[in-house]
Each structure stands twice: as structure tokens, then as C-alpha cells.
Write a structure and sequence with these properties.
heterodimer, A: 108 residues, alpha+beta, two-stranded antiparallel ribbon, 8% strand, B: 391 residues, alpha/beta, FAD/NAD(P)-binding domain, D-Amino Acid Oxidase, Chain A, domain 2, 2 domains, 8-stranded mixed sheet, 6-stranded mixed sheet, 9 helices, 25% strand, binds flavin-adenine dinucleotide
Chain lengths: 108, 391
């Protein structure tokens, strides 16, 4: 079971910041401001933000940006970094061609 | 430990729970949604995004068609979130004469509900999908089916419902329903909190089974692992949903990536796990199917695999509506691997019933009482008959 969160709790208004247009997820070109706004729409877990915006969903699967996204969300929510769970890591570790993956069936 | 009150208590923040919360709150009702994990933790954020009517069982066809006709076309506008709905058809491949016949049966069923579906072969088929291999001998084509983005739809309903005042509590696992004076009124959670309302909606996927059992309602169903893969973005290939009578299904998302799923034949062997895992075999089966039917996809790179649980009903269709034996209780469970497309209509229907309004479509054949052995003998179909039930 996840941590208890009352999603109606007031986390204050979204206040624009000077570096809101900085790109955080380079694969999908998602900015800090978009992530901050998503939190204010009620997306309070890393996975929810990811599923809405696609940050961390690109070719590198979040290998570069996950930590940065975590910090932005934690700051916005006013919680400790450790309180946020990172999205699941899933196979494959590196991108693999459909043709190559499919060949494996013969050996199964 | 505390007790909180609302008009309606909803268990499960998937597409059904979130949609019900939205329609109820919009109508001025107060509701509280309890979710064990996070918003959209279940199949609702993990599915293929297929919004289909074709191939659906006659008992649930009207519900799927209601969603396609009345909800999906304007949903992005209504929620203020682009749910990436595209009504560009669904093409299902057949590989032999037997499947040709099954597709013809689907065409008849669709026609009886006023939905146009036709058979495509040879040049006609190539015109719609130039990429098919000779392995595909025919295809059923349903222009009014489509696709959307399950993650954005499920979260979109949540965002709007929350904005309108619905309360969502995550990390709150419902473990028991209490009856007061014979009617379901309270939901007790693992943290010991109590939520009380005039109506209780259970839309918790497979795990809702255990909650319903606390009031003696046993839904005959089982849990099955469904897996998918996603590729890197590709140039536009097709705008419709694609599937095969072999069981594979998927779409090219608005983003450009392709998402596909397919059974591996081993999906009933992971019952004991709580959270779904990506197995070491299924991605290969999916890729093999894709490579055979649509060889052009072979060069694309797979960037991720994922999985989710589906709740398979013993007789192939979900259990939706009021439960006669327990006044105040409404359920949507056992969606049998294809509850996303109809999800908005199921949420709307439950919201109507919770407000003592009539159901917008006839759902009597989906009621729980069909399993009441004292009253009638249900005709079971094998739930393990594979891909045909899914998507
Ligand atoms: C890989 C895959 C592909 C699919 N493809 C398609 C498709 O293309 N088209 C289609 O129409 N359908 C598809 N489906 C099926 C579809 O996703 C489901 O039928 C649908 O999402 C069910 O929605 P739901 O709201 O009923 O349940 P869920 O989305 O499962 O939501 C239930 C929620 O309840 C929560 N919960 C469970 N127990 C408790 C408890 N005790 N207390 C509190 N909360 C609880 C869960 O954590 C979960 O968030 C697919 C499913 C999978 C897994």
C-alpha cells in the first residue's frame, strides 16, 4: 500500500518561476514549468506526472532526468525526497529491435 | 482512526471510479474515492487504449457503443485534457477460414447494434493497410472504432473530478464493507478509517473481489497477466487500431510510438503476485507476432515492456450495476480485459444509478444476479479461450 495522501490538501498556488521553461526531460522535451503545473493539477506521484506528460518515457527511459524530476516534484509538494517513489524500471535495459526480440521465440 | 461522510464512497481510482466521481460531482453529489496505491494504478493506465465496439459480446455491446457515440468524441473538451481520442477505425486480421467465419459473426453482431463492420481482402485490405504480409488473408474493418491515450484519460477524469470537489485519498486500502440496517453504508480501510455514504461503488478491478466477499458477494472471476511493449517513435504508419485473431492488438500513439500487446499462453501462471511484472518471455511473443503480420515494424526499437492485471469474468462479460442482495452497493468488476473503451460509459452508468436515476443503457444482462444459481443456470464460456475475450 502506498503512503496516505489526501489529494484535497492545500499545497498552495502555482507560482511561475524564472526557469520554468528549462527543459528537464530531454528525450520528450518536458519543461520544469510543465512538471510543476502537473503537481498543481493533483498529480502527486512521479508515475502520475510521467504518465500525463511523458517525462522519463523517451528513448533513455528517464536515465538522465529521473532525479531532477523527483527534486522538482518533492519541492513543489513540500515533502522529503525519500517520500517519493521512482517509477518502475522495466526491460529492456537498452532499446532492442522488434525483429531481434521476436527471434527469441524460437529458443523458448 | 476517523469517520468521514459523503453521498457516495467509491473504491478504486481507475477509469471507472474516476469517471463515476466526475459525473457524480458534476451533478452536485459529494463523493470520496479511496485508492490503495496511486491514481490509475490498475489496468486503466496500462492498457492498449483500444476503444472498440466490434467483437464485443451482445450482452455488453450497447455499453461500448454508448461510450463511442456519446462520450468519447467530446471527452477531451469536457475534461480539458487531450485524451488523444481518434475515431479512425479498427482493423482485425484473420489468418484462415475459421477466423474468416469468426469475423463474419462479428460483422453480424455489429450490424444488429447498428454498427457498420465489413470484410476486407486483397487490394481492398492493402488500401487500408499497405504493410500487411501474406500471412493475413482477410480483415474485419470497423470504421467507427478507435483509440485513445489511457493514461491521460484516466488521469483526466481524476483531475476534473478533483477540481470540481471530489475527494481522492490514495494509500487508503478498503478492506471491509459494513452493512447498517441491511444496507451497505460503510467502507473500512486498512488504516482503520471509516468512510460512510448512502451508496458504495466498488470499481477496484480484480482486488475488489475480496472486498465484495466481506458482504457475501462472490464474483466468479480470475486474475490474468497482460503485457505490452512500446517502440521508439516512428513516422506515421496507421491511425486506426490494429489487431489479429491471434490475440495481438495495438496502435500507433499520437506521440508516434507503437504500443502492442499479445498473449504468450503463460499469462495464467502468475496469480500469486500482488504487483504485475514484465516476464522474460512475453515481449518476444509480441515482437514475433508483429514481425509476421507487419514486417515493416521489425526495424523499430522496443524501449520498454510493461504489464497489468486483467480481471477475467467466468462467463466472458463484466459484472456491472446494483447488487440486489446488498442494497446501496454498486459494482463494476471483472471487465475481462476490455473495460477501458466502455469505461467512461460504465462510470456514467454507475453515477446515474447512485443517484437513483435509470441506467442510460440496458445492463440487465451484466447484473450480478446472473450467477444466482437458485434463479437460473448461467451458461459459462471458458475464460481461458484466449485472446478473443481481450482488448
Ligand atoms: C496490458 C493491458 C491491455 C489492455 N488493453 C485494453 C484495450 O486495448 N482496450 C480496452 O478496452 N481494455 C483494455 N484492457 C483492460 C482495461 O485496462 C481494464 O478493463 C480497465 O482499465 C478496468 O478499469 P477499472 O477502473 O475497472 O479497474 P482498474 O484500472 O484496475 O482500477 C482499479 C483500482 O482499484 C484499486 N484497488 C484495488 N483494490 C483496492 C482496495 N481494496 N482498496 C482501494 N483501492 C483498490 C487499484 O489499485 C486500481 O487503481 C487492457 C488491460 C491490460 C492490463
Amino acid at each position: 500500500m502506498a503512503e496516505y495522501m489526501d489529494r484535497s490538501k492545500d499545497i498552495g498556488p502555482y507560482v511561475p518561476q524564472a526557469d520554468d521553461d528549462r527543459i528537464v526531460c530531454r528525450c520528450e522535451e518536458i519543461t520544469k514549468g510543465e512538471i510543476r503545473q502537473a503537481v498543481h493539477m493533483g498529480l502527486w506521484t512521479m508515475t502520475e506526472v510521467k504518465r500525463m506528460l511523458r517525462c522519463g518515457m523517451g528513448l533513455c527511459q528517464g536515465q538522465t532526468c529521473t532525479k531532477n524530476i523527483k527534486r522538482i516534484i518533492a519541492t513543489e509538494l513540500g515533502v522529503a525526497l525519500g517520500q517519493l517513489e521512482e517509477p518502475s524500471v522495466r526491460p529492456p535495459v537498452r532499446p532492442v529491435e522488434v525483429g531481434v526480440f521476436g527471434n527469441e521465440v524460437e529458443s523458448l | 482512526m476517523k469517520t468521514e461522510h459523503a453521498d457516495v464512497i467509491i473504491v478504486g481510482a481507475g477509469i471507472v471510479g474516476n469517471a463515476a466521481a466526475y459525473y457524480l460531482t458534476k451533478a452536485g453529489m459529494r463523493c470520496i474515492v479511496l485508492e490503495e496505491e496511486m491514481i490509475g494504478h490498475g489496468g486503466s493506465s496500462r492498457n492498449g487504449g483500444g476503444v472498440r465496439q466490434s467483437g464485443r459480446d451482445p450482452r455488453e455491446f450497447a455499453l461500448a457503443a454508448y461510450a463511442v457515440k456519446n462520450i468519447w468524441p467530446t471527452l477531451s473538451e469536457e475534461l480539458g485534457v487531450d485524451v488523444e481520442y481518434r475515431q479512425n477505425g479498427y482493423l482485425v486480421f484473420g489468418y484462415n477460414e475459421e477466423q474468416d467465419k469468426s469475423i463474419s459473426v462479428r460483422i453480424e453482431t455489429a450490424a444488429s447494434f447498428g454498427v457498420h463492420m465489413e470484410m476486407k481482402r486483397g487490394a481492398d485490405l492493402k488500401e487500408i493497410c499497405p504493410y500487411v504480409s501474406d500471412h493475413v488473408v482477410c480483415a474485419g474493418w470497423t470504421p467507427s472504432d478507435g483509440v485513445s491515450n489511457p493514461m491521460r484519460t484516466t488521469l483526466g477524469y481524476y483531475i476534473r473530478a478533483r477540481e470540481l470537489g471530489a475527494r481522492f485519498i490514495t494509500g487508503e486500502k478498503a478492506i471491509k464493507i459494513n452493512k447498517i440496517k441491511g444496507a451497505a453504508r460503510q467502507v473500512v480501510t486498512a488504516r482503520g478509517n471509516v468512510y460512510e455514504g448512502d451508496k458504495i461503488i466498488v470499481a477496484a478491478g480484480y482486488h475488489g473481489k475480496f472486498l465484495l466477499e466481506t458482504v457475501g458477494i462472490v464474483v466468479p472471476m480470475q486474475k490474468k497477466l497482460n503485457e505490452m511493449i512500446v517502440t521508439e517513435p516512428a513516422p506515421r504508419l496507421f491511425e486506426y487500431m490494429v489487431g489479429g485473431m491471434s490475440g495481438f492488438y495495438g496502435q500507433q500513439t499520437k506521440h508516434g510510438s507503437l504500443i502492442f500487446g499479445c498473449p504468450s499462453g503463460r499469462e495464467y501462471t502468475f496469480h500469486e503476485l500482488k504487483n504485475p511484472v514484465s516476464t522474460s518471455v512475453t515481449a518476444s511473443f509480441i515482437c514475433e507476432s508483429l514481425g509476421i503480420d507487419l514486417p515493416i515494424l521489425k526495424q523499430l526499437k522496443v524501449v520498454r515492456a510493461w504489464s497489468g492485471w486483467v480481471d477475467i469474468s467466468l462467463d466472458g462479460v463484466p459484472v456491472i450495476g446494483a447488487v440486489e442482495e446488498v442494497p446501496g452497493l454498486l459494482v463494476a468488476i471483472a471487465s475481462t480485459g476490455h473495460g477501458y473503451g466502455p469505461g467512461p460509459a460504465v462510470g456514467y452508468t454507475l453515477a446515474q444509478l447512485a443517484m437513483d436515476q435509470p441506467s442510460p443503457v440496458d445492463i440487465t444482462k451484466l447484473h450480478f444476479d446472473r450467477f444466482d444459481y437458485g434463479k437460473k443456470q448461467p451458461r459459462y464460456q471458458s475464460a481461458s479461450s484466449g485472446g478473443a475475450l481481450l482488448r
